[in-house]
Write a structure and sequence with these properties.
387 residues; alpha/beta; five-stranded mixed β-sheet; 44% helix; elongated
Length: 387
């Protein structure tokens, strides 16, 4: 079946760099590469016509890439179109930059004398002759504006914009953290940021590694925190049978539309409290030593995901789970070969993946080992120091 058209593209007049870099009262008037806008009123940058939406990554071009862009402009070569999504807010039209923010940001960077055209030379914008400045400022950048088709709701149009953004990132594939951040307005992501990350950011013991979270350039904890929610609340969803709990393939699209009720939110927050208490209890029962192996508590494919699965397993009590994990973690800290041998016999995928199969099989191995260490370690060649 041929897909239904859900989006229109308009091709308005190109924008010049002069317009892009227009300044009034020492501030850029229509675009500012240093500001982002996330839809909250009165946020800095809300008065700009061209906005960098919150889901965009921080530009990561090196010096060579930046100077090649400016060289391209001076030579009159094309730099490609910028792609904008049209938005209307309180009857005011503005545009989110879906593709091209790195190019526009580096163009403004050169205009602001952040780097020279040629390294180690006086080829900053301020050092150019007037004719050279005008040639740069008069350069035209094509625009493509994405608009909603008739009959498409605002909600579905937002989803189509998200889809467009992801498909445009062909040069550098979006990581799980970027796919999740692309849906920052969705219920699960909002809950993760507002009720988990922000709450535990100032906690003295940063067990979940959320202390340095930043929506712009330090999003790496997002997939693991989303994994907690999905593992606890949506473990039996069919989409998890072959995919990660974070953002594998199409799962992020399915998960981001899930609503969380108060019971589910309480389940997540109770688990995190239990998890923090359990990890901290390890050091109460057995004081850490200088020779201890560092255990990762914040990655969903490590201890965290296994504890999520165990937490909702009703076959054992919470006290039993806590006692087991304290013992297992202290063994991990004391045994150099334990992590390398505990999964002996499992498939490579089940040894490391966040699939339902992988996590279930690893958890089963942990439980079997804890219940009969001598037999299980002998059967699978597990090497450990008991504590």
């Amino acid at each position: 079946m041929i897909p239904t058209q859900v989006m229109k593209r308009e091709f308005p007049e190109p924008i010049t760099i002069r317009e892009l870099c227009e300044i009034d009262d020492e501030k850029f008037t229509i675009f500012d590469y240093t500001k982002r806008y996330d839809g909250v009123k009165n946020l800095e940058g809300s008065n700009l016509e061209y906005r960098i939406p919150k889901h965009q990554r921080k530009p990561e071009w090196n010096t060579t890439q930046k100077t090649e862009l400016i060289d391209t402009i001076f030579k009159g070569f094309p730099i490609g179109s910028i792609i904008l999504s049209e938005r209307i807010e309180e009857d005011v039209k503005y545009y989110d930059i879906e593709d091209g923010q790195t190019r526009l940001s580096n163009i403004q960077g050169y205009f602001m004398n952040k780097y020279p055209l040629i390294e180690d030379t006086d080829t900053y914008f301020k050092d150019l002759k007037n004719g050279e400045k005008n040639r740069f400022l008069d350069y035209k950048i094509p625009k493509i504006v994405l608009q909603k088709c008739n009959g498409v709701s605002d909600y579905n149009h937002d989803d189509n914009i998200h889809e467009t953004f992801e498909r445009l990132q062909g040069g550098k594939a979006l990581a799980d953290k970027d796919k999740i951040m692309n849906r920052v307005d969705k219920p699960i992501v909002k809950f993760v940021i507002e009720d988990i990350i922000n709450k535990y950011m100032d906690n003295g013991e940063d067990i979940l590694c959320v202390k340095n979270f930043n929506v712009l350039n330090n999003r790496k904890v997002l997939p693991d925190m989303v994994g907690i929610v999905c593992g606890l609340c949506f473990k039996d969803e069919k989409c998890f049978d072959k995919g990660y709990f974070t953002a594998h393939k199409d799962n992020h699209r399915i998960l981001m539309d899930k609503e969380l009720d108060n019971i589910q939110k309480s389940l997540v927050l109770d688990f995190i409290k239990w998890y923090y208490d359990m990890i901290k209890s390890c050091n109460i029962i057995r004081e850490p030593e200088d020779t201890d192996i560092k255990v990762n508590y914040s990655k969903f494919n490590k201890v965290l995901g296994l504890c999520v699965f165990d937490y909702i397993d009703e076959s054992t009590s919470m006290e039993y789970k806590k006692k087991m994990w304290i013992n297992i973690i202290n063994i991990m800290k004391s045994s150099y070969n334990f992590i390398d041998t505990i999964w002996n016999g499992l498939t490579k995928g089940d040894q490391r993946n966040c699939t339902k199969s992988g996590l279930t099989n690893r958890l089963e191995r942990i439980k079997d080992f804890y219940n009969d260490k001598a037999t299980i370690s002998r059967e699978h060649g597990i090497k450990f120091v008991d504590v």
